[in-house]
Amino acid sequence: MGSEALTGDELSDKRRWRPGAPLLASTLAIAALALASCGGDEEEPEPAATSAEEASEPAPSGGAAEEGDAVEIADFKYAPEAISASVGSEIVFTNSDSAPHTATADDGSFDTGRLAQDDEGSITVEEAGEFSYFCDFHPFMKGTVEVTE
Ligand SMILES: [Cu+2]
Fold this sequence. Notes:
Blueprint: H1 2-43, H2 45-56, E1 70-74, E2 77-79, E3 82-86, E4 90-95, E5 104-105, E6 120-124, E7 129-134, E8 142-148
The chain binds copper (II) ion.
């Protein structure tokens, strides 16, 4: 009785060991391969991200110095949203977005036309009054120019 039980234990031990060792080795090898290929995948996007950062660097914060004469378009907004200018003066719109924009007067009295990224468009205001304008591509974008004599 006792000897039969022992034999059974020895058999099952041997069965566990033999397939166990090669399985473990190949599992480790697969895991190592998976880790190596994961590392390779993660490195690829880095150059693209770096060049994107470089491309967006030159854009910001240059034009806002002359109050009333320059409007920067960024993040789908005119900045400043309301400006004042005197009759006959020029207002320069600069588009800092990658999306195209316009500054188009509600009454059609001025229109920069389509401004691609980093394009500038200037308008001349020739009449006193308050003029609201919008973006032809994104009508929710609105601004005003107050023109004084
Ligand atoms: Cu727009």
